[in-house]
Amino acid sequence: MLASFESALGRFRTNLEAGRGYSAHTVKGYVTDLVDLVDFLEVQGIPSPTEIDLEALRAWLYTLSERGMAKSSMARKTASVRSFTAWLFEQGELASDPGLRLRTPKANQSLPKVATREAMAEIFQVLEVAASEGQPTAIRDLLVVELLYATGARVSELAGLNLSDIDENRRLIRVVGKGNKQRMIPYGVPAESALKDWLDRGRPTLVSPKTSFELLINSQGKRLGTRQIYEVVAKALAGTAIGAAGPHALRHTAATHLLDGGADLRAVQELLGHASLGTTQIYTHVSIERLKEGYTSAHPRA
After folding, report:
1. 80 and 177, same domain (yes or no)
2. Is 149 designated active site?
3. What DSSP string runs through 70-138?
4. Full residue range of the structural domain in which residue 195 is found
5. pTM
6. Total domain count for the chain?
7. Domain finish residue from 40, 74, 101
8. Is there a catalytic annotation at residue 154?
9. Catalytic site residue 22?
10. Which terminus has fewer CB within 10 Å in the chain: N or C?
11. Residue 252 known to be catalytic
12. What is the CATH number of the domain that holds 204?
């Protein structure tokens, strides 16, 4: 990579990490997308970020399309590039921002996978039986699924929970979401019971010299990672109609079941930590689809 591009990407990375407070995972995604762009620009004979123009960006998107890249991936890469060119313009390294006129490919939006209430009841029945046998990891796995379903938290938010983030008296957890934004989320009585069991019988058994203040820990006494949480959820959902989906499926399920039960859309937005109400509205479409399915199967003149 040419030194001018390497310098610009390094400074942009610092801006994402320090200036915007993005997570390491998000920053890595941005940089990966931009390295792909830079590789293309260098082949095209563009030696510096100051020479990026709309024509070059469109040519890059065209090559991605020719490779057969999914529209959702192209949309993500476009968003990364637009953020980069906007920053270059703010830094005075571009006379104008070509990213403003770069059209984002529209992804084929599909409705999120959602487990039924009956499926969730069966999952909890299985997990509760396993936890009742006293195995610490089984007690923890029940808590993992309870909290994800009760709060709609992101997997990274759950993994990052510390003991001090739990307000047991008010049944609230404090999570750190995107952009280091904190929010408080309530949880219900079943999750409260699972939490108490974990703190009384599960966690003390797994504590080791490596353990400090983490809420969820693995068999080595270290913080439970997002990949391990994914495995727990995938195993729990494997027997349902949606299959071995990850933790985000429980977030979708929690949001949809809340709206099905009459929750206010803005309250669900606050719960999920969505910056835009439009992001939350996808779940209203899920609820409407479920309503249609119920109507079609139950109404005599449907």
Report:
1. no
2. no
3. -HHHHHHHHHHHHHHHHHHHHTTSSSS-GGGG-PPPPP---PPP---HHHHHHHHHHHHHHHHTT-HHH
4. 117-298
5. 0.65
6. 2
7. 101
8. yes
9. no
10. C
11. no
12. 1.10.443.10
